[in-house]
Amino acid sequence: MNKRIFKIIKFIISSAVVSVFCVSVNAAGDELVMDKPFFKSFSRINSVVRDEFIEKQMNRIVIGRGTIISISEQERYKKKYRIVVESSDAGDFGYKFRFYIYTDNRDTLDLLTLDSSFEFKGQLAGYTPLDTKRTRYILDVIFMDGSTIIE
Q1: CA 51 – CA 113 distance, rounded (Å)
Q2: Where in the chain are the domains?
Q3: pLDDT tens digits, residue range 83-112?
Q4: Cβ(143)–Cβ(83) below 8 Å
Q5: I need a labelling partner for 47 at 20 to 30 A (CA). Which of 4, 11, 104, 128 fits?
């Protein structure tokens, strides 16, 4: 019985390590691109270690895209405004990722419209898991660059 439990634990740990390595290889370089290949690899990570994986990505430059669901004046990280973007790629794999993008640039906000597609680049500053299954997250991003996507 103890050997069986040990084998199960060993399998879980080894699969988690391999999964984290796969996502890390996908995210090689200075920038972490949060696109369909990223979420496909992320889905292979055991839910127990997903927070640890995101924690290791802190302060990295992330690139993401999604739909703008909110634009507001809300101060955090010494920035005046917040853009809330729902990831368009995460849903294909059963995840819900919301990016809280913080900026000081009012001109950027004036160019954005709700329900439009938005691609951005910024520094990952924080994260909040929203459920115990670790399938829903809020990621805080300090805005560096971005543009609306014309379809």
Answers
A1: 32
A2: 2-149
A3: 999 999 999 999 999 999 999 988 888 889
A4: yes
A5: 4
The superfamily CATH assigns to domain 2-149 is Nucleic acid-binding proteins (2.40.50.140)
Structure-token match 């994986």, residue found = 53
If we measure between CA atoms, which residue out of 57, 101, 108 comes closest to residue 76?
101
Instruction: Decide: 102 and 141 in contact? Cβ < 8 Å.
Output: yes
- pLDDT tens-digit readout, 28-70: 468 999 999 999 999 999 988 999 999 999 999 999 999 999 9
